[in-house]
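U., I forgot to send this yesterday:
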Amino acid sequence: MKQLLEFLGVALLFQGAVGLVHRLTGELRGWGLVQRLGFLDGYETYASVALIVLACALFAAVRSRRAG
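Result:
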């Protein structure tokens, strides 16, 4: 379970970072999931930040499970 949460955290962190890089620079077109979802048009930055925050929450959950 720990490895699954870590993998999901890394995937979410990567997707959030790619989304922000694409939104701010226009590079990495086609790499991210956020720009492919039509209902997020205009909210790509917020969605990318939310993915990064969710990844940090997953990492914190994994760390708390490891300590406890």
